[in-house]
Amino acid sequence: MLTARAILISNQIDRNSNAHLQVNSKSYTNNKSNSNSYTHLQVNSKSYTNNKSNSDSFTHLQVNSKSYTNNKSNNNSNARIQVNSKSYTNNKSNSNSYTHQQVNSKSYTNNKSNNNSYARLQVNSKSYSNNKSNSNSYTHQQVNSKSYTNKKSNNNSYTHLQVNSKSYTNNKSNNNSYTHLQVNSKSYTNNKSNSDSYTHLKVNSNSYSHLQGNSKG
Asked: Where is the composition biased (Low complexity) (predicted)?
């Protein structure tokens, strides 16, 4: 159970996407997009989340809740995540990439992508993290943390996740997309990508991690 107070973080990018975060709240969140993709996160809440997209892809996350999650997409791909709840988890993708996660476990999950970028997700934490990136979109989520998060993108998309940490996280991307995950750590993490995408995972460590990629993830 997350004990953090409700935090609402809204990120905007100048290319067709948005990210939304709702944490530890009894309220609900609704995201709609008529173009490309968006990501929604709902954590530790009895409310529900609904995402709809008329194009490309989106990612939805529902964690530690008795509520349900619903995702619909008329185009490319979508990812669905339901964790530590009485509901189920389902991932489907018809194109490009999708995100899969495993939470509150001593192992971590696997991510697959048929195109550019994919997201990879974490383990062994009371909080949860989801990252999903496809095209022209990004996802941001900050959960149960006193840290500061910064996002910048000059081109397509990227995903950043910082959970249960007092550290500072910074992500930059000059091309397509990448996904970064930092969980339960006091360390500083930095990711940069000049081509396509890659994924970085750093879990439960006090060390410094750096990842660079010049080819597809």
From this structure: 186-198
